[in-house]
Write a structure and sequence with these properties.
It contains 14 helices and no strands. The protein is mostly helical. The chain folds into two domains: 175 residues, no CATH class; 134 residues, no CATH class. The longest helix is centred in the N-terminal third of the chain and has 32 residues.
């Protein structure tokens, strides 16, 4: 039945609010969540770097370049520095097969914090602690990466065979999973303070690249064709390098792309610039302002190709070695400084690290 009078429009439902009345809500990040996000990023990057290094080492030990002493020396130094082999294992320059067998056998080692096997498990533990921030697809990817890697390592060690072919397959699969993890972290997560710490953790772990370049110069690998190509490959910049420089194998081209080029996301210049920017944003500073926390991170704008290529009377790249050591030191110091600044697990659980 239709009424003849005015209709009462009173309602208990909420009316639409103008956009100006809708407050912006920032998601709080507790110190414990912040710490786990930081380590999630750090362990993801470590997994990628150590898996790529292990693949390079196994390929080098079985390829056409195994007679290159500088390459074998550099791979031995890098493997020992990153716990791919135990310190007591003889270098590849002295006992190539023993070195290779030890490397393959150690892939599943979960005791040493820098080893290949330790990192996927650490990624899973950190991801589990911030499970509510990850999509189901991200979590499934982390689980699958850990399980398939451990199963593959068990196959490698089956009947004490330690197959290098099987090891390469396992490492290639792990690298694919890690690339997918990195893509999800970059493209599928909200850019809040938690994500900035995750990103900081990832880029801070790239200190291993500074260490790799440092050892490459000390071992002479950069002056050897096979060693030069291996260094570029560790930086995941082979395609970019040859697109820019064709078949050049000189130090000038190497440093231009791997140290100075801030358009190359694998270069030290891009990494340090990004780190300084992330830390500034985390501290709530306007663009261009650098917080005290970021001061130990070298400023790539101060680097020049001429200075990095300059050699002393003994042929040493003094300025370059200084810059690379600063990058390595800053990467190791960063986690301690962030822990002291943001990861104190006390006070209000609702406190956001960026507040």
């Amino acid at each position: 039945m239709l009424t003849e009078g005015e209709v009462d429009t009173t309602s208990l439902l909420h009316h639409e609010h103008p956009s100006v009345d809708t407050p912006h809500r920032s998601r709080s990040v507790t110190s414990r969540a912040a710490e786990n996000l930081f380590w999630l990023g750090r362990y993801t990057e470590r997994t990628e770097n150590t898996a790529r290094l292990a693949r390079l080492a196994i390929e080098g030990l079985n390829g056409e370049d195994q007679s290159s002493q500088p390459l074998m020396a550099w791979l031995s130094d890098m493997a020992a520095a990153n716990a791919l082999v135990l310190s007591a294992v003889p270098a590849a320059t002295h006992a190539r097969r023993v070195f290779e067998r030890s490397l393959v056998a150690g892939l599943a080692d979960t005791r040493h914090a820098n080893s290949v096997g330790f990192n996927p498990a650490a990624v899973r533990n950190a991801a589990a602690a911030v499970r509510e921030r990850l999509s189901q697809e991200q979590w499934n990817l982390v689980e699958r990466a850990t399980q398939e890697f451990l199963q593959g390592c068990a196959t490698c060690a089956g009947e004490s065979d330690y197959s290098s072919v099987e090891a390469l397959r396992v490492l290639e699969t792990l690298s694919g999973h890690t690339a997918a993890m990195t893509g999800a972290q970059t493209d599928r997560m909200t850019r809040d303070d938690g994500w900035r710490l995750l990103s900081t953790g990832r880029h801070g772990a790239d200190g291993v690249l500074g260490q790799a370049l440092l050892l490459a110069f000390e071992s002479g690998a950069v002056h050897d064709e096979a060693g030069f190509e291996a260094v570029v490959a560790l930086f995941d910049s082979t395609i970019t390098f040859h697109a820019h420089y064709q078949q050049r194998h000189d130090v000038v081209a190497l440093l231009d792309l791997l140290v100075l080029d801030r358009d190359n996301p694998r270069s030290l210049g891009w990494v340090t610039q990004t780190l300084r920017g992330r830390l500034g944003k985390l501290a709530g500073l306007p663009p261009g302002r650098i917080p005290l926390l970021a001061l130990p991170v070298p400023d790539p704008h101060a680097w020049t190709l001429e200075a990095l290529c300059e050699r002393d009377a003994d042929g040493r790249y003094v300025k370059l070695m200084e810059v690379l050591q600063q990058c390595v030191d800053a990467a190791y110091r960063l986690s301690d400084d962030l822990t002291a600044r943001y990861f104190a697990h006390s006070g209000d659980a609702r406190y956001s690290v960026g507040a």
